């Protein structure tokens, strides 16, 4: 559990999320890296079929997202999805899965919280991939944002609000 | 809980054991309701039973319910069948919904057995209006619990799948297999159907969040017993044909309640001591040491001291 979660547990995601069914017929594993260790663990489950999509096998994240959408469009109830990666990666694919009809209970999110995360700038309403730093400039409007402990599951993003209204662009004090 | 005045409109026997009753407003219109809602009927004999509303949720000029005569009636279904007359006035509760349609479902699979068809009549009207994808699977006994088969055949066309008990078995494994993501299943019928559904859905990897059910909620009779109310020191006797909740209501003690059948959890009441025969489907094992559901559960030994 990171510092943010301890201070404000209900407005930020908790990992791992989801509520795995007692029995899963088809397990879909999606990993940002090769994910060999988790692949081997899941393969050991006797009565579950495993499908693994790993980002290194695809041109980019968009191509991986399309492959996941295609797989889920043909899937049947009994599927459970497990996503491993940084927050920007897992929440973008979580959106693909929800659009395909999966419920929150059918998606397990495992997160590397030192990676990228999505930010929503409240000043210019842009959605962008940021870092895990607490302060970072908006790439669209340049305002120095404080990343609030407030997460939108719909957007998969944290709220970014001007850190210092007297010096919105973090310019040097005169 | 707020009660409404209603007048009994048309009643008709639709099979030898099922009577349909329409309820009209005494003043103005009735409150709107969503598909799957029920109301409680406050019968003149002191019984209050919950019945699903089967009429069109878009029509608040009247409600319709259907009541199956129970062989071991405690007086509720028998009263509706033998004594209730057009023109009678009675109190009903406002509609409440413990069995709503799931808003993000893309395919609704409805499973009804016998009189369990009632909530699905409102469902089907609503789903047809929305143009939603759905199937109704209806198991019944010809001549006995086949109310609405003809009406449904006309209204639903290929949405309807019939299982007459002597001709075709309802195979839950087949029904739940190979369903697209976005499917939700809803069932209403006897406990044996709901148990089989839970078992089959679990085996096929369905999460509980896709499986919705409504039990026939009705208390069973038992032996008479006595409870004491800790805060007032009053004693309340519960008759064999009466539930604890009904006995408390007769004594002027009103508890919040919705289903009156041990499933919704509204009437949960703490107790300090006594032997309780728990008959509900709501409380977890460890909660039963200090809470009981007076709508169905009964005393069975040393007297119960309720913490109210």
Automatic annotation (TrEMBL), chain A:
One of its GO terms (molecular function) is metal ion binding. Residues 26-107 form the Dimethylamine monooxygenase subunit DmmA-like N-terminal domain. Keywords: 2Fe-2S, Flavoprotein, Iron, Iron-sulfur, Metal-binding, Oxidoreductase. Residues 119-161 form the Dimethylamine monooxygenase subunit DmmA-like C-terminal domain. Pfam families: DmmA-like_C, DmmA-like_N. InterPro entries: DmmA-like_C, DmmA-like_N. NCBIfam families: mono_DmmA_fam. This is Uncharacterized protein. It comes from Pseudomonas kuykendallii.
TrEMBL record, chain B:
CDD domains: fer2, PDR_like. Residues 221-308 form the 2Fe-2S ferredoxin-type domain. Residues 1-102 form the FAD-binding FR-type domain. GO terms for molecular function: 2 iron, 2 sulfur cluster binding; metal ion binding; oxidoreductase activity. Its cofactor is FMN. Pfam families: DmmA-like_N, Fer2. It comes from the Bacteria. Keywords: 2Fe-2S, Flavoprotein, FMN, Iron, Iron-sulfur, Metal-binding, Oxidoreductase. This is Ferredoxin-NADP reductase. It comes from Pseudomonas kuykendallii. The lineage of its organism: Bacteria, Pseudomonadati, Pseudomonadota, Gammaproteobacteria, Pseudomonadales.
